[in-house]
Design brief:
Layout (H helix, E strand, L loop, with lengths): L10 H6 L13 H14 L1 E3 L5 E3 L2 H19 L2 H17 L4 H6 L1
Antiparallel strand pairs: 1-2
Helix pairs in contact: 2-3, 2-4, 3-4
């Protein structure tokens, strides 16, 4: 199962020669994940974990954005970083017009 966004061996790294640097989701690199997720939403497609093109819609974008918070908990276990990532994710959700209530139901 390939990483979609992070590292040179990720789907983005292999096919588009851009990727999120580092290991894990942190407050420092979350803006890169968000930028790529929003890019996928604008262009209408993304990659799955087998690096196949799949449709990207608002619902999938919301799911991927929200999943950044538990990944940060897993990767850092630092409460300040988790809160910083949470705030960045909420800002990104607002940009795509996802209300907090809708985001939690996705």
């Amino acid at each position: 199962m390939a990483n979609i966004y992070q590292g040179p061996d990720s789907c983005y790294g292999r096919f588009e020669r851009i990727y999120v640097p580092g290991r894990g989701v942190t407050a420092r690199n979350v803006k890169h994940f968000i930028a790529l997720i929003l890019r996928d939403l604008r262009r209408g497609w993304t990659y799955d974990h087998r690096c196949r093109r799949i449709p990207m819609d608002k619902r999938l974008a919301v799911k991927r954005l929200l999943y950044l918070v538990p990944l940060t908990k897993k990767h850092t276990r630092d409460v300040k970083q988790v809160w910083a990532v949470r705030e960045a994710v909420l800002d990104a959700l607002a940009k795509i017009g996802a209300t907090r209530k809708k985001a939690l139901l996705a």
